[in-house]
Specification:
This protein is mainly α. It has one domain. The chain is 77% helix and 0% strand. It is built from ten helices and no strands. α2 packs antiparallel against α5, α2 runs parallel beside α6 and α5 runs antiparallel to α6. The longest helix is centred in the N-terminal third of the chain and has 42 residues.
């Protein structure tokens, strides 16, 4: 398989992302942002001014970070499992193309797509909230794509119900960590094996606001996602796409 052929696939992959996922991400992001900004602008009027020291700033961070998580969930939905369920893999790999290389490239093409969507959405928000740092937001989006997307990629390789499973893992880990994390005994140790979702609040607040965060928190998120991405590639290499 030549690199040129794989590169040509990337153009189709990005086009498919834009049509099938990018439009949905943009619509959801704009609607979510509107529900955040419009009521505050109406209430504050001419005094509308949101910055890191504003009481409304944590709400801005919560909403924008949630948009990132939703974008990753949409992007990773069926990234491998749809081709397996619908039988598209027979067409995709009728030519000498490595499934591992194809889906690894697809993962990063979708990452580029998510970042482009986040760039557009954050650009709109920046015109309304000038203190919102676009670059910081894109750095956070990239971290969450690797952290959450790596798990989503593995789940899509391993199961047919990937978006439901990923949402359950991501939200369930937060609930279980909140419930058992501070308790003594083996349960508090066992929850450390779950995705480090308890780090998301501090990382989002720090990176989006100032562009920095605790290195250990960022590495934990990136390492966890990268591990499961690698496991997903290993399953592709050793397994079969035939459902």
């Amino acid at each position: 398989m030549s690199r040129a052929r794989l590169a040509r696939y990337s153009l189709w992959q990005f086009r498919d992302f834009a049509i099938d996922r990018g439009i949905a991400i943009m619509i959801i992001g704009l609607l979510w942002g509107y529900t955040l900004i419009a009521p505050m602008r109406a209430a504050m009027g001419a005094a509308f001014d949101i910055g890191p020291r504003s009481p409304a700033w944590p709400l801005v961070i919560t909403v924008t970070s949630s948009v990132v998580s939703l974008a990753v969930l949409i992007a990773l939905n069926g990234i491998v499992s749809t081709d397996r369920k619908m039988g598209y893999y027979r067409f995709l790999f009728s030519k000498p193309v490595s499934a591992v290389a194809y889906y690894a490239q697809l993962f990063f093409v979708y990452m580029a797509g998510v970042l482009v969507a986040m760039l557009l959405l954050s650009g709109v928000l920046h015109t309304i909230v000038p203190t919102f740092k676009i670059v910081n937001f894109l750095v956070y989006a990239a971290i969450i794509y690797i952290a959450m997307g790596g798990i989503g990629f593995f789940v899509s390789v391993a199961t047919r119900f990937d978006w439901v499973t990923l949402a359950a893992i991501w939200l369930g880990s937060r609930i279980v960590r909140d419930f058992y994390g501070a308790k003594p005994g083996w349960k508090s140790k066992a929850v450390e094996l779950l995705p480090p979702v308890h780090k998301l609040h501090d990382v989002s607040m720090s990176i989006i606001t100032s562009g920095t965060a605790h290195t250990s928190d960022v590495l934990w998120l990136l390492g966890y996602g990268a591990l499961f991405f690698a496991l997903g590639l290993l399953l592709l290499h050793r397994g079969s796409l035939a459902d």
